[in-house]
Amino acid sequence: MTLSRMSRIRIGSAPDSWGVWFPDDPRQVPWQRFLDEVSESGYEWIELGPYGYLPTDPEVLREETGRRGLRVSAGTVFTGLHRGPAVWDETWAHVSRVAELTRAMGADHLVVIPSFWRDDKTGEVLEDRELTAGQWSQLARGTERLGREIRDRYGLRIVVHPHADTHVDTEENVARFLDATDPDLVALCLDTGHYAYCGGDNVKLIETYGARIGYLHLKQVDPEILAAVRAEELPFGPAVARGVMCEPPSGEPALEPVLAAAQQLGVELFAIVEQDMYPCPPDRPLPIARRTRRYLRGCGA
């Protein structure tokens, strides 16, 4: 795989790869250390992570990222749009803050993650695992509305992230969601690890729904740990703590074919490394990040 064949793929990393899941948590590394180490690892692009982890003052954040040679590719929000118009105002209050900072940092994408059907820490079931037909309709129409508002007000494109323990997870549910939404308003953030975690074939998805792929998250799952997670029906949080998301190239899916398929789409795409590691020792992320960046260069990215 030559560098020229990966010329359309822009590689970055995210706070997630440093064990950051929350705006403030004593088990997480300080944001200054994250910025120092992600730059030291050889990445030029980052995501904002949970809103409030990095400085939310654009001038401060531009100074801190700029002097480390970093740029922002996207912000991230969680939504529960399948619950209908009743949640719109609360959703928009959060989303608009993140979108404003994302735009101020010069990024073009907003990653949208559906809400969990069970608590990712305790495993408490919060709602039914499967959506009704009416809830699917609410999810589709609400996401289209979000895509339109974000585009018109902030000039950003939403990319919806299929995620374990949400309603947009398996091949069947991802296809149903894509088929129900307007391609002009809703694109997909394909997370290779989450899609494999839920049984999906990443390359097949890219080949089938290529026009809908607007963004990539790169991660792998450990197949042996995943088998135990499925057998025990573990929630996603405890599964991560057990190490279900692993360092490339030791897991699945193989990333080189995924990157090659994405390159064949003929469009520029961000491919952001996100190795879920919450919680993790503070000295663990940097060596992994360096090795992962070196591995991806070997893939031509």
From TrEMBL:
Domain named Xylose isomerase-like TIM barrel: residues: 35-275
InterPro entries: IolE/XylAMocC-like, Xyl_isomerase-like_sf, Xyl_isomerase-like_TIM-brl
SUPFAM superfamilies named among the record's database cross-references: Xylose isomerase-like
PANTHER family per UniProt: HYDROXYPYRUVATE ISOMERASE, INOSOSE DEHYDRATASE
The name this protein goes by in its record: TIM barrel protein
Organism in which the protein naturally occurs: Streptomyces boluensis
